[in-house]
Amino acid sequence: MDRRVLRLFWPRGRRASLRRGVQGGLGAALALALLVWWLVPSDGPSYPHRPVSFATGVANGVYEKYGMLLQGDLRTALPGVRVTLEHTEGSVDNIKRVASGRSDFTIAAADAVASYGGPGKSRLRAVARLYDDYMQLIVPRDSPVRSIRDLRGMTVGVGQADSGVSLITHRLFKAAGMDITKDVTAVPVGIDQAPAMLLGGRLDAFFWSGGLPTAAITAMATPVARIRLVQLGDLVAPLHAMGSEMAYYRQAAMPADAYPSVQDDKAVPTVAVPNLLITTDRADAGLVERLTRAVIDSRDAIGTVVHAAQLVDLRTAVFTDPLPLHQGAVRYYRSVKL
After folding, report:
1. What's the sign of the alpha-carbon dihedral 209, 212, 216, 218?
2. Ranges of the chain with pLDDT below 50
């Protein structure tokens, strides 16, 4: 505005008041900005805004349920990133997908990771150790089976071909001195089909490896279904004697309250193996750092639905043998002073 016009409409006193008002407003705005900066946390590291794929597992399994719940948290943790879930056969399939670049992230059991020798192995990285899988052998309540050796001559669900269940089951039979190809009729089905097949009489037993409790088995654990869990704890020592790759298996017990109506208030000895959240060194460090934070922060919320997720712990998340941590995960753990 022309100064002469300004003088005409705004006498000296009023112009001084205007300047003081503008300065006061700027000061208030600056103070407000500083307050917001102080109270609101930083958005965190930058990351590419592109779609991300997460390989989960078979329908009705713990991997699938965990992935579905984590997907919701990642919408908040990674604004602008569309996270898609992919159904798979399980750990072995998951590792192949991530190593080959077909999937960006996945969950896989540590024994399957250690056993993988295919293309892209050297590029695999860990984000976090999650929770342990428990090996579960399910039979009808009136079954004569009391150990894996009693399965001779029976029809048994052993997990899908590229699942962690199948990997462990084959090793358990070997540890028991049995030949899975000769001593039983092995049926390659997973938790999406095996329960109905057992209840329908088409299986005498089936194996499952998953967090506790697994919803599909909880659904079977009714007075009408009448199922029972068979101990596998006597196979831990023979497993360890089979070689260094068996070191990922540990002696464990399914707590009496895992499936209360099935276990008669008794713990069931078995074999457990840790699960890892994995990616490759191709994943952006900023994205991995944010994702790692989301995994740790979402533990309690996810754990109300997937109880195994309650065991995700900041203190143990960094123990990801046999894989090194991704650099983005390292940055997160350092930021929380681990």
Report:
1. positive
2. 1-10, 16, 18, 22, 33-42
∠ at Cα 23 (21, 28), nearest 5°? Answer: 95
Q: Which value, in Å, is the radius of gyration of the alpha carbons in the chain?
A: 27
All residues at 6 or more sequence positions from 288 whose CB lies less than 8 Å from its CB, including other chains: 127, 279, 326, 327, 328, 329, 332
Q: Model pTM? A: 0.84
How far is Cα 169 from Cα 37, in angstroms, rounded to an integer?
A: 55
Residue reference for tokens 């071909």: 161
What pLDDT does residue 93 have? Answer: 97
The CA distance from 203 to 185, in Å, is 9
Q: Which residue has the tokens 């092995």?
A: 186
Nearest to 58 by CA among 173, 276, 215: 215
Handedness of CA 271, 138, 63, 66 (dihedral sign): negative
| Contact predicate 51/102, CB 8 Å | no
Kindly give, in sequence order, each residue whose CB lies less than 8 Å from that of residue 33, ignoring residues fewer than 6 positions away: none
What lies within 8 Å, CB to CB, of 55 at 6+ separation is 85, 86, 88, 93, 94, 97, 98, 103, 105, 106, 107
Q: Left, alpha or beta for 17 (phi > 0: left; psi -120 to 50: alpha)?
A: alpha
Which runs of E-coded beta strand occur in the chain?
52-55, 83-86, 105-109, 124-140, 155-157, 185-187, 205-210, 227-230, 250-254, 268-280
Q: Are 74 and 22 in contact (CB under 8 A)?
A: no
Q: What is the pLDDT of residues 205-264, one digit of tens each?
A: 999 999 999 999 999 987 777 899 999 999 999 999 999 889 999 999 999 999 988 888
Q: Using CA of residue 101, residue 105, residue 107, residue 111, what is the dihedral sign?
A: positive
Two tokens, residue 217: 């088995």
The DSSP output letter for 246 is G
